[in-house]
Specification:
By secondary structure, the chain is an alpha+beta fold. It folds into three domains: about 1-30, no CATH class; about 30-175 and about 335-365, Periplasmic binding protein-like II (D-Maltodextrin-Binding Protein, domain 2), CATH 3.40.190.10; about 180-330 and about 435-500, Periplasmic binding protein-like II (D-Maltodextrin-Binding Protein, domain 2, 3-Layer(aba) Sandwich). The protein has 20 helices and 16 strands. The strands form five sheets. The protein has a five-stranded mixed beta sheet with strand order 2-1-3-13-6. It has a four-stranded mixed beta sheet with strand order 11-7-12-16. A hairpin with an 8-residue loop joins β8 and β9. The radius of gyration is 26 Å and the shape is globular.
Length: about 500
């Protein structure tokens, strides 16, 4: 075909431009199936030729957030590129942007259409970036080019990253649901209530926390100015970022309500206020910028074994966790980490093939999660004959949750318990929001939403720390919210939800 094109170019120079355009497009309308496109570099699969499978190595660029670029990046890249070249014919350029710089850098990349192929995205920007056309619609491509990736992701998760029925990202397979836990200093919990594991409501903690306060002369439930946001954990805020509006996860009718006026939320707020008045909560909670590492009791989102791997070590004590409430799955929980492909990417098929490897191939996943084999980690054999990872240092700065599945990461050699089994079980048992896949379009009420957000921010710290009496504070806040257009937001949300449910 190529020789014929050259011959035509020589004989019919007037038609040369048309021939080149017809024969040298950068994208194929019908991508090759995954089993063909995984041929080694330089080997052309049969059928229509996808981008990069003509023997040329495709360079992909991936932006993610973390602790900055690895010091051994060049060696790490060279090692991984060798593997990726053989598998799917690509090389990978990773840009790890520091946490403090991420928001500004991400915004610049998207707004200026800076070249990239894959970008870490989350619920704060996902929908808005889709609306401005930043990301590729991968609905058809992910199923035809990467069927293993498509089948590895639960249908509910795909719905959570869909807008108007089209898929715009690959959700990270991790704790895509959300579960809250009471985290205790285990020694203190056992000292003041041997039956502490039966305490699974906020109100039920009062007696034990009071005993701790009196016996240890401490405020056992320290809060920062962010407060206890989990008081609204039973409500889907529809991606608005405005907790006072929402739909109860357990309400199949999907009725929009004023969340802080609901009896269950008011009860929790009242308990917090009682704790604040009694000294269980620290007096400076509403102004404290950051809570200390050690707290006798606090609430955190995660899974039980995190008390052993994270919460306890962070506090410097043995910790234990008791589940508080239900496990929920929503757009927001799934969109905590999404990999999106640039709408301007020349090789969306190759970007998806890379993400398929990240989510199904442990060698690629370990390289992103742990770093360079032989320098950051090494593979060892466990007593049961399985392969494990032994970390040689803690220098790897990439944030694992921004990349891909946690369920194909090789276990460390210093543990005989796979905590991600707990995560998978929680995901499977999660109550699914009736609004999964629904996107609230607030464009017609952007001024009202902005005003309501400003009012909420003024009340947030004092209400969520118990500093303010909710009996007077909530009515006062709601009066201001309603004056700013809160009821109009509720009505518009309900109308859109009704249309969404009706199909």
């Amino acid at each position: 075909m190529k020789k014929m094109k050259k011959l035509l170019a020589l004989l019919l120079s007037a038609l040369m431009l048309l021939v080149l355009v017809a024969g040298c497009g950068t994208e194929s309308e019908e991508p090759a199936p995954a089993d063909e496109s995984s041929a080694p570099s330089g080997e052309e699969p049969s059928g229509e030729e996808p981008s990069g499978d003509d023997g040329e190595i495709v360079e992909l660029t991936w932006y993610m957030v973390g602790n900055g670029m690895p010091e051994n990046y060049d060696a790490w890249k060279a090692n991984l590129d060798t593997y990726l070249e053989e598998k799917i014919g690509v090389h990978l350029n990773v840009h790890v942007v520091g946490w403090g710089d991420w928001d500004g850098r991400r915004s610049t990349i998207v707004s200026t259409n800076e070249p990239y192929d894959i970008m870490f995205t989350n619920l704060g920007t996902f929908s808005s970036d889709v609306k401005i056309g930043a990301f590729e619609d991968i609905t058809e491509l992910v199923q035809s080019v990467t069927p293993d990736l498509y089948s590895a992701v639960d249908e509910d998760y795909w719905r959570a990253v869909s807008i108007d029925g089209k898929i715009y990202g690959v959700p990270t397979l991790k704790d895509v649901s959300v579960t809250q836990y009471f985290v205790w200093d285990k020694a203190l919990a056992e000292k003041y209530n041997p039956d502490y594991e039966s305490l699974n409501t906020l109100e039920s903690l009062t007696e034990t926390l009071t005993a701790m306060k009196d016996g240890e002369n401490i405020s056992p439930f320290i809060l920062s100015r962010e407060g206890l946001s989990a008081v609204t954990m039973d409500y889907d805020a529809m991606g608005t970022g405005l907790p006072p509006i929402g739909v109860n996860y357990n309400d199949e009718s999907a009725t929009v309500v004023s969340v802080f006026e609901q009896e269950d939320v008011m009860s929790k707020l009242s308990t917090l206020h009682e704790w604040y008045e009694a000294g269980i909560i620290n007096a400076d909670a509403a102004t404290l910028a950051e809570a200390p590492q050690y707290r006798a009791c606090f609430v955190a989102q995660g899974w039980p074994y995190a008390a052993v791997t994270t919460w306890g070590p962070n506090m410097g004590v043995d910790a234990t966790a008791v589940q508080w409430g239900n496990t929920y799955l929503s757009n927001d929980t799934v969109q905590g980490s999404v990999s999106c492909i640039a709408n301007s990417s020349a090789h969306p098929d190759k970007a998806l093939q890379l993400l398929e490897l990240v989510n199904t191939d442990s060698y690629v996943r370990d390289a992103l999660f742990y770093g360079l084999e032989g320098e950051n980690f090494e593979y060892v054999e466990a007593e049961d004959g399985t392969q494990r990872v032994h970390k040689l240092n803690n220098d790897w700065p990439m944030a694992g949750y921004t990349q891909g599945s946690f369920f194909n990461v090789t276990m460390l050699d210093d543990t005989d318990y796979n905590q991600y089994d707990e995560v998978a079980a929680l995901n499977d048992a999660a109550i699914v929001s009736p609004l999964l896949g629904f996107v609230f379009d607030t464009s017609s009420l952007s001024n009202e939403l902005s005003s309501c957000m400003e009012i909420w921010q003024r009340y947030k710290a004092e209400l969520l720390t118990g500093t303010m009496d909710p009996a007077t504070g909530v009515p006062q806040m709601m009066d201001e919210l309603r004056s700013a257009g809160f009821d109009e937001l509720m009505a518009e949300a309900q109308a859109q939800i009704d249309a969404f449910i009706a199909g």
